[in-house]
């Protein structure tokens, strides 16, 4: 039995036994997991999944959920990031629930009201071209190195208006303050090469266009797996530094979901250690949150990583105004 897929523009059709999923995680990664869930129900539940294919797919799905709020079609939203999930939480469009996760689940990986749960994260890392920077002692070690004049024109980051880079600097705004973060971004813009996305950063470093850059683990590990001359650095590990940011997948059930019972079953399946292990073993080498996960992602270093402590809900406050301020900086 296979998951039924709908096009990005067509209507979602379903029967009374279907659970409808809007997924911002790429179809190739999500579909095998949704298929496995469907098989595990022994025919009791069928999954209808909708994937948008455009570059702003997360925003497109979120806007569709908002447009459908008075008569929800989606039962469960699987997002490959977190900020827009928090946006839906703040709009009151998600259903609080108890999550079937182990005790001690990190506080920044579960909503304060139980309306979403984070799992299977990507980390914000530095990727270094080892031919251009052959000595590991010379590798950059902090996100702030993007504003260091010694690297002028030799480092890169993605324009922080969308995706994980936008999330990253919204988080840093809460840690360092709004004015300091905007000033830092202005310095970075003057010092580094600004590219359109994290994938483009990883490709530029892999090709030797620049020496190093800031990207996500899933983009970095692809270049390493291809045998490119790159190293991955988990930044800001010193005691006086904030740690490495990890940005999870999130899953949430929509308020007034038409098929709540089936959505509950699927939500618990998606955040399970088995699902996290499956995503960790995949091409994107995602990072399990569960301590009972059995598979260590190949992207992780041999030494433990100190993770940044984050309040994503606070970081999402004033998102629209913050986005306007960033647009002014990067339109200059």
TrEMBL record:
Keywords: Signal
Cross-referenced SUPFAM superfamilies: Periplasmic binding protein-like II
Organism: Novipirellula herctigrandis
Protein name: Fe(3+)-binding periplasmic protein
CDD domains in UniProt: PBP2_Fe3_thiamine_like
Highest taxon above the source species: Bacteria
Keyword Signal appears in the UniProt entry: yes
Keyword 4Fe-4S recorded: no
